[in-house]
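Technical annex, item 7. During the second reporting period the consortium partners agreed on a shared format for inverse folding records so that results from different sites could be compared directly. Each record opens with the tokenized structure and is followed by the designed sequence. A conforming record, contributed by the partner at site C, is shown below for reference.
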């Protein structure tokens, strides 16, 4: 690796020029990467609800709809609104009471249930359904919604999942740039306090920033899009996770500068070599943690996992090429900005910790039980819309819809178009009898047994019957992701399949029900894969049977505490947090443990006794661990406090808290574990004993 280090030093100016030029294609790639705001689209494509969405799009030419509540408006004005919305690009159909009533059919002969579906006389409001010809998260549907907003006034409330996604999109686009600013500013403050140069932290952030642009610029590869969760978190998470690589290079560079009497180029070449050797092991564990997310059936994990695994690789590459080049080129300015470290070195507590290790082992055992209990009893939510601020237009529209029409989720039933009229009526009657179902709007709802199907306009008939399928809208009073609606969906599925074994119930609520079932399995799978992968990596790196158990146990203990706290505070987390946070925390903070373990191993190999070896390892590691943890905390905590998107906010706060908990656990619990299991470690691991000295110092081996 020293040859690589010397090459970087020699070609530092061309490396920096090339890295700046590469920013151009990376930026182009970044701006051409589409962002997907529909979380439900990451469900497996082969499940019935997702196949049903494809049928809806292919057979009926629609993938989304909105329900608009119109207050205090007469029929003539509503008709004008409907005509205006009908002319909007990608609006396929507009359905309201007047779609049928205007066709010279006396209103008093229309079915009462159909009238009640579209009208609330007490609130003096009417309901309008707008059906789009694209999926609910497509750019075309978003543009159509923006145009509809321009057409309707304050008396109109546009609800539905498409409106929710549009609000998430607008909120995310506004907040995401601010996330980066917050993370950079807070990280810079932490680095300024903990480092001895004012310029070095700026160079750290510049090199990491370039690595982030490279990472985000390569996301267009594959299907050309990433999720908004990945878009929002990737830069902040990459900054926090890869910062310690830069810190390690800087500390190694300072040590090598003293070793080579101020020869900066030679010192940097050796610092690069040492950094590569040390960072490879820790970065592999971090990458393994993110790769574990790719094993989720819910492919949001694949999206986040691939982007973050790439981010770590770009971070390592930037740390050993771009950053050294910057430091050497800016050496004079770096030296001029040197200052005394504001936060003192806390390595002085190392001896005290190792001498009182039994206290921390006892605390470990006492806290473990409540931590596991909290970890297994933390509640999660799946209602994505319900976690958004109440001030958003879609949330207010949903509240109006619930208040005036007692309408929660709206399901879609797809059934055979050739089903007999009697069979269809029997099925509809049975669907209406299910608890929570308010109404079933099908083609027969307009006919009521008294109006011939032929008299209805084609635009109405095409909405409900097209090709091989007919469609029914099932309105109900239960909220999405509630136990009641999930039980209701099971009953509805049994009913429709008893009449047509190919019939299906689809929509936001059925998709969310599938999401609950799938992610419960994903949680166990991802945890097992991440723990197994990191266990195997540590086993290979340290050639040890005992160390993987100890290191993973210590970090898992920190994860139990972090994820268990919400159970005691009554906090309900977004479902994705329970799946990804443990993996991210394990992969990102096991580096702290590996750093200390390497030093402990070296000290024991040099012949130091147990307590001095562990104390020295802790003393020389504690500052790096704290700086890295606080930088990770700074990069994520501010974003968590600022964001109005609860999924982003919760994930960032959990990551920030996890970094600090892992820091304390590694500083206090891990050395105590080494004190207790030292004899087992040195006899079950390679490289802890210098065999050439065993015969002359047998008494010190197990101390």
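Designed sequence (site C submission):
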């Amino acid at each position: 690796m020293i040859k690589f280090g010397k090459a970087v030093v020699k070609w530092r100016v061309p490396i920096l020029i090339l890295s700046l030029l590469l920013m151009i294609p990376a930026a182009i790639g970044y701006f051409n990467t589409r962002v997907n705001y529909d979380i439900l689209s990451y469900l497996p494509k082969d499940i019935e609800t997702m196949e049903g969405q494809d049928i809806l799009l292919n057979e009926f030419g629609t993938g989304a709809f909105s329900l608009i509540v119109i207050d205090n408006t007469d029929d003539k004005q509503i008709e004008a609104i409907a005509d205006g919305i009908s002319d909007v690009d990608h609006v396929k159909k507009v359905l309201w009471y007047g779609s049928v009533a205007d066709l010279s059919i006396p209103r008093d002969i229309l079915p009462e249930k159909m009238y009640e579906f579209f009208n609330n006389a007490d609130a003096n409001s009417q309901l309008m359904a707008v059906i789009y010809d694209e999926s609910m998260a497509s750019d075309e549907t978003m543009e159509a919604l923006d145009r509809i907003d321009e057409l309707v006034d304050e008396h109109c409330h546009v609800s539905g999942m498409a409106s929710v996604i549009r609000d998430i999109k607008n909120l995310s686009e506004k907040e995401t740039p601010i996330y980066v600013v917050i993370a950079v500013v807070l990280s810079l403050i932490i680095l300024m306090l903990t480092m001895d140069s004012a310029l070095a932290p700026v160079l750290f952030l510049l090199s990491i920033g370039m690595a982030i642009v490279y990472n985000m610029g390569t996301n267009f590869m594959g299907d050309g899009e990433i999720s908004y969760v990945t878009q929002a978190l990737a830069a902040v998470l990459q900054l926090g996770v890869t910062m310690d690589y830069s810190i390690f290079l800087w500390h190694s560079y300072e040590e090598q500068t003293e070793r080579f009497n101020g020869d900066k180029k030679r010192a940097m070449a050796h610092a690069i070599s040492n950094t590569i050797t040390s960072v490879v092991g820790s970065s592999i564990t971090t990458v393994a943690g993110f790769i574990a997310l790719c094993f989720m059936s819910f492919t949001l994990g694949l999206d986040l996992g691939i982007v973050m695994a790439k981010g770590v690789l770009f971070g390592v590459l930037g740390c050993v090429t771009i950053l050294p080049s910057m430091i050497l080129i800016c050496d004079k300015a770096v030296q001029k900005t040197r200052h005394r470290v504001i936060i003192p070195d806390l390595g002085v507590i190392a001896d005290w910790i190792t001498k009182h290790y039994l206290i921390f082992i006892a605390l470990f055992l006492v806290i473990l039980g409540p931590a596991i209990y909290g970890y297994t009893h933390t509640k999660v939510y799946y209602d994505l819309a319900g976690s958004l601020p109440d001030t958003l237009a879609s949330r207010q529209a949903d509240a109006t819809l619930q208040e005036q029409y007692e309408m929660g989720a709206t399901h879609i039933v797809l059934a055979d178009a050739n089903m007999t009229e009697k069979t269809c009526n029997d099925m509809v009657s049975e669907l209406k009898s299910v608890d929570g179902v308010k109404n079933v709007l099908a083609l027969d709802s307009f006919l009521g047994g008294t109006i011939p199907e032929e008299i209805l306009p084609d635009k109405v008939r095409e909405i409900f019957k097209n090709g091989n399928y007919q469609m029914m809208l099932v309105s109900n009073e239960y909220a999405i992701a509630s136990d009641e609606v999930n039980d209701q969906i099971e009953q509805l599925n049994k009913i429709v399949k008893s009449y047509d074994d190919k019939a299906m119930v689809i929509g936001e609520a059925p998709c969310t029900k599938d999401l609950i079932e799938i992610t419960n399995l994903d949680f166990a799978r991802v945890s097992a894969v991440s723990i197994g992968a990191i266990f195997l990596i540590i086993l290979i790196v340290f050639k040890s049977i005992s160390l993987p158990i100890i290191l993973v146990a210590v970090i898992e203990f920190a994860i139990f505490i972090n994820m268990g706290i919400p159970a005691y505070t009554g906090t309900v987390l977004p479902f994705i947090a329970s799946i990804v946070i443990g993996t991210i925390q394990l992969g990102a903070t096991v580096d702290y443990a590996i750093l200390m373990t390497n030093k402990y191993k070296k000290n024991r190999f040099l012949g130091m006794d147990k307590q001095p070896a562990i104390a020295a390892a802790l003393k020389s590691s504690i500052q790096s661990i704290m700086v890295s943890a606080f930088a990770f905390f700074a990069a994520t905590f501010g974003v968590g406090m600022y964001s109005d998107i609860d999924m982003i906010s919760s994930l960032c706060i959990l990551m920030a808290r996890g970094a600090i908990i892992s820091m304390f656990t590694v500083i206090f619990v891990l050395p105590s574990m080494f004190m207790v299991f030292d004899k087992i470690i040195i006899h079950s691991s390679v490289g802890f004993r210098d065999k050439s000295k065993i015969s002359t110092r047998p008494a010190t081996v197990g101390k």
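Residues 695-703 have pLDDT under 50 and may be disordered. The first strand starts at residue 34 and ends at 36. All partners now use this format for quarterly exchanges.
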